[in-house]
Amino acid sequence: MTDKSQQFASDNYSGICPEAWAAMEKANHGHDRAYGDDQWTERASEYFRQLFETDCEVFFAFNGTAANSLALASLCQSYHSVICSETAHVETDECGAPEFFSNGSKLLTAPSVNGKLTPESIREVALKRQDIHYPKPRVVTLTQATEVGTVYRPDELKAISATCKELGLNLHMDGARFTNACAFLGCSPAELTWKAGVDVLCFGGTKNGMAVGEAILFFNRQLAEDFDYRCKQAGQLASKMRFLSAPWVGLLEGGAWLRYGNHANQCAQLLASLVSDLPGVQLMFPVEANGVFLQMPEHAIEALRGKGWRFYTFIGSGGARFMCSWDTEQERVRELAADIRSIVSA
Ligand SMILES: *Cc1c(COP(=O)(O)O)cnc(C)c1O
Asked: Which of 149, 285, 314, 330 is deepest in the core (most CB within 10 A)?
């Protein structure tokens, strides 16, 4: 019997993974110091430094919108601008929070190919205007894995960071699904971040099996100046911080973060392999992380909803997104695929 509650609308439909849960339980004995002065926060930060093989500054926030917005705000002044892809979460799904927390730094969208920015698209936006009347480009933000389930290769990241260096831009990475990118490429976290020129990473925990929480890693430590104050002012300093940091210890210490990223990716591969040859069904993007985007006839989308499946269709007419999670059951994937098959073959 499969777990019928499992849906593919988003990876945050899932619950808390056993490792994160167990660590929270362990942290829940006795008293400990507040506001991040505790042993769990210390241990989680140390695990991050080990995993990334560098002495980075580590902070914790409740969610990705806050992590991204505050990180971007720390990289620019209010009169600066942030270059992002037109499909970026910061542009389409954060309700203006990056602009709000930076006191007005404007997001400038660049065309993307399969959800990815390129050195050319960045250059075009950055050099479009250089007069006093236009907000001065200061940051590039990219999403790894992207909003459409693709993954930047180390070479692509290096080419982008070289362009950033040349143009005097800081490089931020929205890593809400960073684990899925690491799992897909088999690259170390260091290779996909600071070794490729990334200054700041927002590492997502929620979609990787935690209840709540994202980590912000500054590889360029100078950019982290006063970041603790920024978090506090934004209402992002957890007073019982250990419950935000302990789950990271659970995920990082035994490698669960990568196993789960890998599992979710495998489920997406399975789904893609089961439906991509069906008549009228097309993969909209290469399946590289934990999402499958299918172009399907409108009536098929309706029929699939009628069978009780939940999924998003924000990618335009006929486009359906299916996300796999750390705990997605392969049998449940097969059930979804079978329903799609029966609908489009009817
Ligand atoms: C989920 C997600 C986030 C974080 O969103 P919150 O709901 O604010 O936690 C950030 N970036 C991307 C690409 C995401 O998919």
From this structure: 149
